Amino acid sequence: EDKVVQSPLSLVVHEGDTVTLNCSYEVTNFRSLLWYKQEKKAPTFLFMLTSSGIEKKSGRLSSILDKKELSSILNITATQTGDSAIYLCAVGSGTYKYIFGTGTRLKVLA
Amino acid sequence: DTGVSQDPRHKITKRGQNVTFRCDPISEHNRLYWYRQTLGQGPEFLTYFQNEAQLEKSRLLSDRFSAERPKGSFSTLEIQRTEQGDSAMYLCASSSPSVASGPRKGSYNEQFFGPGTRLTVL
Fold this sequence. Notes:
The complex is a heterodimer.
Chain A: E1 3-7, E2 10-14, E3 19-26, E4 30-38, E5 44-49, E6 56-58, E7 61-66, E8 71-76, E9 85-93, E10 97-100, E11 104-109
Parallel strand pairs in A: 2-11
Antiparallel strand pairs in A: 1-3, 3-8, 4-5, 4-9, 6-7, 7-8, 9-10, 9-11
Chain B: E1 5-7, E2 10-13, E3 19-24, E4 31-37, E5 44-50, E6 53-57, E7 65-68, E8 75-79, E9 88-95, E10 112-113, E11 117-121
Parallel strand pairs in B: 2-11
Antiparallel strand pairs in B: 1-3, 3-8, 4-5, 4-9, 5-6, 7-8, 9-10, 9-11
């Protein structure tokens, strides 16, 4: 059965810290891996990864995929209170389906 | 310019009643997804449409659930004979089949989510 596991489940840091969130997966016919940020509403898209070893960056956020290890990490540097959210990892399996992990709840303290 | 919209935003119903939710995707998007999300969990895939064709349906979707996208634009999700376990946030997402061109079209596989419909079954 397809599954996506995220760790840690929750994390509390102080502003300015760097955090690394993990996503590992076991799916049939891997297609892509997506990261989303979810605050008190619907998820918003951060990154899509399809190739191993190529880092995607957007400001203080970056992500990389390791298809050999079936995993991805999301890094956030110089965290701010506005980064507090649930970070979701989703993996495209087969032709159309996406499997989401349970998310990592990040809280950044001022 | 509007994103994905869903209606209603909240629905409270009694067990055994039928409910219907509507999703209007971004106009250029031909791919539409329905998900269900409960507290502390990530979104759970329910079904996928490409244009008007329902191409994939989760095994978790019992026969009380049905979804349609009759003209390849908006979609409806109906739950018949609701149960308390159906209480959840129902999310709709859409995506474009083409490579990135503009902030709303997004890149291939990038899903834009609607605000969700929160269902409470009493």
